[in-house]
Amino acid sequence: MIERRGGQVRVPSYAEMLRVPSYLPIFLANALSMWGDYVARVTIAAVVFERTRSPLATATTLAISFVPTFLGRSLLGPFVDRFRYKFVLVISHVARALCVLGLIWLVTTAAPLVWIFTALFVLELIGGAASASNLVLVTDLFEHDRPLYARAVALSAMAEQVNQALGLALGGGLVALVGPRVGLLIDFATFIIAAIVILVVVQLRPVHGNRGKGVRGFVHDLGTAIGDLARNTVLARLIALSAAASLGIAAPEALAIPIAGDNGWGGFLMATPIVGAVVGIVIIGRLDVHRQNASIVPLAVAMPVPLLVTAFHPPLAVLVVVFFFSGLLQAFMVPLQATFALATAPEMRGRIFSLAGSIAVLAAGASYLGAGWVGQHTNAYLGVTICAAICLGLILVLGLTWPHQRVTATVERAYASPRSTRAA
Fold first, then answer.
1. What average pLDDT does range 28-55 have in this prediction?
2. 39, 183 in Cβ contact below 8 A?
3. For residues 251 and 351, which has the higher predicted lDDT (pLDDT)?
C-alpha cells in the first residue's frame, strides 16, 4: 500500500530525491541538452533575421521546431520500446551534436536558408526520441518510491521553466557576444557532455514486452499505442485536459510582446507566467500526492480565469499580476504528468510517452498560432481574453464529465508500492 504518515502520503524532501543514485547527473545532462535546443533555435533565428530582416521569417524559424518535435515524438516513439533507452539517449545526443556541426558549416558558408531549416528540422526531430527516453529513464529510477517520483516530476517541471528562460536568454546573449558560430560550438558541447554523462552513469536495463518485427511491426506498435491511449479513460482524459489547457497557457506568452508594445517590457511580461509556474510548482510539491491529484481539475478550471481581465485593457502592473497568477495555477500539470507516467504500463511507456508528448507539442503549437491569429484579427488584449474564454469552456466540459472515481483508483494504484502491487 501507499506509505502514509498521519493519514497522508509521505511527502519526501528534495534532498532525499537528489540522493537517489545517478539522478543528479542525469538531471544535469537533461538540462544541458535542453539548453542546447534553445541555443540552437535562438542562434538560427538570429541568423535568419540578420539575412532577411524579416520578423515573419524569424518567427517561422522558431515555430518550425514544433513540427519536427511532434513528428519525432510520435513517429520515433516505438524506438524507445525496441531499444534500451541508454542507447537511444546516447545516440540521440551524438546525432544532434552532428546536426549542430552541420549547422555551423551551413552558417559559415552562407548556405541557402532551406538547408539551414532542414538541419534544424532534423535536430528537433531526433530530440523527440530523446525526450521520451529520458522520461522512461527517470520513471525507472524511482520505480521503488512513487511519492519520490512525484517530487522528481515537480523538480523537472520547475527546471524546464527555468531552463526555457535561461536557454533563450543565453542563446540570445551568446549570439550577440560571440557570434552564431561560437554559440553553436557551445551548443555542440552541451550535447556531447550529455551523451558522455548518460554513457557513464546510466545502467543498461532490459527492454520490456514483445515488439513487432520490421516496418510493419513498427507501425503496428505505434497503432497499438494510439489504441491503448484512446481506450484508457483516465489516460485519455489527462491528455485531453493538458491539450485543452494549452490555449490558456500559450496565449499570454504569444501576445505579451504586442501587448507591451514598444516600451521594452515585452520580454518581462512574457516571462511572468513562467515565474508564476515555478512558484506554483514549489507550492504544490509540498502536498501529498492525493491532494495534488485532487487539485488537478479545480486548478485547471481556475487557470484561465484571471486572463479574462485583459478584456479591460488593464495597465502593465495589473497584467503582470494577472499573468503571474495564471502561471501559478498551471501547477496542476505536475500531478497530471506524474500520474500519467506511473499509470502507463512499463512495456508501453516509450510509445505512450512519445505519443502523449507529440499531442502536447501539437496542442502548444496550434495554441500559439491560434492566439496569434485571434490577436491579429482583433487586438492583443482581446486575443488573450478570447483564448482564455475558449480554454475555460473546454476545461469546464472535461471537468463536468471527469471520471473522479477512476482517477482516484488510478492514483491509488500508481503510487502504491511496486512490491505490494505485484503481490496483489
1. 73
2. yes
3. 251
